[in-house]
Design goal:
Elements: E1 2-5, E2 10-15, E3 18-27, E4 30-37, H1 47-61, E5 65-68, H2 71-79, H3 89-95
Parallel strand pairs: 4-5
Antiparallel strand pairs: 1-2, 2-3, 3-4
Length: about 100
């Protein structure tokens, strides 16, 4: 289960005593995703995608504009265009060029 650790500005997923996370920064009504990290021993289990989906769903619920500076989050949105509507317009063009 993904939890939001506001004190550390990240979404976290604890598995087998290890933590995968997606780091963010809040800027008013924007949430800037900076970095997503999955420990090597947990890679290949889809944990990054679980984190991305939970973080983006939370951003949508909070009516936040997403700035996907993290390349993993950006790639996830590219594969899941249903999140494009919450992406900051300048980044939207980078993800889905016309």
């Amino acid at each position: 289960m993904v939890t939001k650790n506001e004190a550390r500005s990240r979404y976290e997923l604890a598995i087998d005593g290890r933590i995968a996370f997606s780091q963010y920064e809040r800027r008013g009504s924007e949430i800037v995703f900076l970095h997503t990290e999955v420990p090597p021993e947990l890679e290949g289990r889809g944990l990054g995608s679980i984190l991305a989906r939970a973080a983006l769903d939370d951003a949508r619920a909070g009516r936040l504009t997403v700035v996907p500076r993290c390349r993993f989050i950006r790639a996830y949105i590219e594969r899941h265009p249903e999140y494009l509507d919450i992406v900051e317009p300048g980044y939207r063009e980078l993800i889905a060029p016309a």
